[in-house]
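lol ok so funny story. i was supposed to be doing the assay writeup but got distracted and ended up predicting the structure for this chain instead. priorities right. anyway since i did it might as well share w the group, maybe its usefull for someone
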Amino acid sequence: MAVHEQPHRHVRFPMLSVRKAGTAERTAGETLTLTATSTHLLAGLRILTGFVFLWAFLDKTFGIGYATASGKGWIDGGSPTKGFLSSVAAGPMESTFHDWAGAGWADWLFMLGLLGIGVALIAGIGLRIAAVAGTAMMALMWVAEWPPAKHLSDGSPSMSTNPFADYHLVYAIAIIALAAAGAGATWGLGKAWARLPFVSRNRWLL
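and the output, tada:
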């Protein structure tokens, strides 16, 4: 009886596949961790930036004693815009800002802007509107301080430290980034806000 030798079959263990799977799992885990960390960092940035605007509103309204002296708050008859706009001493809108200083409409727009932007950022709702309003406000304040100027209109040094990038620009970019990232869901009411019928029908309210 003839004996037929069976060909040897080598059993190969899919070590490479296991290794790839393990690497993929680690990468996915690192991505999830990074994503979770990023959302929390953005939420912290959102709340801190919102507090900057809200605190400015509270201080100017009640004269807490920081930027606005006690007894000179808005509720005491003081003007939130008069001191700043009347002191503008450089830039193409110098005379325009002087005309606006202390005007009732300017006070109301400025204060409502501070309050609205501050509440929106802290609560995590209406971030797109906050980004538009905040950018417009920061742009006007940037023009009022006019960082490109080396000298004021009276010839004295402006003490500008940078001809372009100052804190107004940083705040504007931060608010735009927060709105673009949809940073209202973490530590905020962004998800609940987005589910409201009038918000879901008008996405610009997100």
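Residues 142 and 167 are 9 Å apart (CA to CA). Confidence is low (pLDDT under 50) at residues 1-19.
back to the writeup now i swear
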